[in-house]
Specification:
Shape: globular
Strand content: 5-15%
Distance between the termini: 40 Å
Number of helices: 13
CATH superfamily of the largest domain: HUPs
CATH topology of the largest domain: Rossmann fold
CATH architecture of the largest domain: 3-Layer(aba) Sandwich
Order of helices and strands: EHEHHEHHHHEHEHHHHH
Helix content: 40-55%
Strand order of the largest sheet: 1-2-3
Oligomer: single chain
Bound molecules: adenosine-5'-tetraphosphate
Amino acid sequence: MTDTPFTPRVFSGIQPSGNLTLGNYLGAVRRFVEMQNSGIETIYCMVDMHAITVWQDPGDLRRRTRELAAAYLACGLDPKKSILFNQSQVPAHAELGWVLNCVTRLGWMNRMTQFKDKAGKNAEKMSLGLYAYPSLMAADILAYKATHVPVGEDQKQHVELTRDIANKFNHDYKVNFFPEPEPIIEGAATRVMSLRDGSKKMSKSDPSDMSRINMMDDADTIAKKIRKAKTDPEPLPDNLDDLAGRPEARNLINIYAGISGQTPEAVIAEVAGQQFGQFKPLLADLAVAHLSPIANEMHRLMGDVSEIDRILGDGANRAAEIAEPILAEVFDIVGFVRSR
Ligand code: AQP
């Protein structure tokens, strides 16, 4: 992490828009846990307001928000060390979001690749919320003056936009109020790809369940998905350069490295010469051994949703205590009369 004149503070979030995937886990949640244990203040959110930028069945959204909270806890986030809450319960996100909508330039938003990917040819039919998503994400981060944002590779552009928005706010109002937060993109699996198509990101909302490993999948399902993962007929080489042009093979090596905590270089040296018939069972065993205890703990936690709601409520109170004075200062800076 680089030096910043602002007190280090970590913020990140995940949408409760589907089953948490192995991609979310390796790209984001594992980093969340590492940062929590590094002694910096950490704030982790279930960003339910982002989730509704595309249609969510209300009952599913409620269940998935609690499941995501259960996943955070089962993966090692500790509500005594980190602030855990769902975004809609802290109004400062939406309120700062509006102010930042008025700072953000349309030209910047038009360059956001995630909107283009998600909207495809149907941009006219997408919600205004989906288009404005990155400016609300900037508010999520800046409402806490967060300095570091652990994310997967796909979110890098949004964190860079947050830096532009912070910078323009500071410049327009002649203040040094917001930090320019840094994306923290680390580990062997910062972009886990679909198991069915090595050119597409593994995603909660992919229509094919076989494209991803869900954190609540049972051992047989994990093994089946890995067995059926798309690969090629060549054996594994002894170096990563020779995996160029073999995205599915590279993805499985990265997943193995991400789960085992090794580098992809070390993994390829270990499995050089193996056919996928040998390598896939090794990967399946590793994934099942690592993920099954997390899934079991998630199921246990989901047996008592009132306890999950209590943890989220407590987190929201603590988050609001930090965000409200920052928002009040923003109101003063922009010239809103605070009449009550
Ligand atoms: N495939 C991935 N590999 C590594 N990291 C990933 N992340 C997402 N997919 C991968 C990281 O997970 C965090 C949470 O993402 P999000 O829920 O805010 O939205 P997303 O990036 O759009 O993730 P999904 O799974 O693809 O969700 P949907 O399908 O709802 O859009 C982020 O840090 C992200 O980088």
